[in-house]
Amino acid sequence: QGSSEDIEDVSLFDADDDLSRRSKQSKIRHPVASFFHLFFRVSAIAVYLLCELLTSSFIACMVTIILLLSCDFWAVKNVTGRLMVGLRWWNQVDDDGRSHWVFEARKVSAPGSRTSSEAESRIFWLGLITCPMIWVVFAFSALFSFKVKWLAVVVMGVVLQGANLYGYIRCKVGSRKNLTSMATSYLGKQFLRQ
């Protein structure tokens, strides 16, 4: 009776536009780059964990792991960082022989002009942060279990993946800002929210 007058006619086009915007943002635009961003990292960790079960040759395992880590370093630094999140970093030597580190972030001119999606960004940062932490755990494990021969391999994993992590954090935060002050302010904000 009176309920038909209380019902408001709402257009569904806004909801459809919002849904299509969300699906475009969560869509992976560079599936090959996303695959290889995780493939080399996860493969190196898997080979490290399964190496002694599959073969007794330490040299073959070490070479395989270091090759996978090197491929990962190159792919993340030169390809996936640029495609997935629009960040890149490199070292440049000037004519005087001085080394300069360059950290770049893609400029976003309009809100709809982003070429990287939220899903790719999550994949990139999750892989970039999680894997070096796993290698640090492996380093402590190798150190405390006295597996000195594996310590060199694990240190290579920490150094190569840690260098990419540091470079991309500097790109994201900005080369002029102090990372310690950024971390302190972030933790302070998180503490105040809780």
From TrEMBL:
Q: Name one GO biological process term.
A: vesicle-mediated transport
Coarse class of the primary localization is membrane
Topology in the lipid bilayer: Multi-pass membrane protein
KW Methyltransferase (keyword) present: no
Keywords assigned by UniProt, alphabetized: Membrane, Transmembrane, Transmembrane helix
Write out the annotated subcellular location: Membrane
A single Gene Ontology CC annotation of this entry is: Golgi membrane
Domain of life assignment? Eukaryota
Short name of one Pfam family: DUF846
Q: Which residues cross the membrane?
A: 31-50, 56-76, 123-144, 150-169
Q: What is this protein called?
A: Golgi apparatus membrane protein TVP23 homolog
Q: Which organism is it from?
A: Zapornia atra (Henderson crake)
